[in-house]
Write a structure and sequence with these properties.
Elements lengths: L10 H14 L7 H18 L4 H13 L19 H11 L1 H4 L3 H23 L12
Helix pairs in contact: 2-3, 2-6, 3-4, 4-6
Length: 139
């Protein structure tokens, strides 16, 4: 490994070295479930504050957190209810379906704008505090 160029390493080669380096400085990687919880809060705050577009933040939450783990398979009655994010899941699919239910460009732009504001408001409830319904770890 010593003397190899970084661009020739693959993740399988780099991961043990990365973990060893973290251990040397006293750091540990979070579990995947804890990391998903951090990601959720990061994206929620970024979307709520406008650091990134709210719809983009919600898409990352859905892809990296909700579908990226086991949370979706733990829902009981409504999509998202295992994490208390039913409204976010509904907004995600509503935003995704805009081209299928709104036909003119002007109407699509207006609908995107309306939903972007609604998504931003919904994300604000998650980004700044530890909401009781959102666990520290997200399976």
């Amino acid at each position: 490994m010593a003397g190899e160029r970084a661009d020739t390493l693959v993740r399988a080669d780099a991961e043990p070295e990365f973990r060893r380096a973290l251990a040397e400085v006293g750091l540990t990687l979070p579990t995947p479930a804890v990391a998903r919880g951090w990601l959720f809060r990061y994206y929620a705050q970024a979307g709520a504050t406008g650091a990134i577009p709210a719809a983009s933040a919600l898409q990352r939450i859905m892809m990296d957190v909700y579908f990226g783990g086991e949370a979706a398979s733990q829902d009981q009655v409504y999509a998202g209810d295992a994490l208390g994010i039913e409204r976010l899941v509904g907004l995600y699919w509503e935003y995704d379906a805009i081209p299928e239910r709104v036909f003119t460009d002007a109407e699509q732009a207006a609908e995107r704008s309306r939903l972007e504001a609604e998504i931003q408001a919904a994300l604000a409830g998650f980004g700044h505090s530890r909401q009781a319904s959102l666990p520290e770890e997200i399976p």
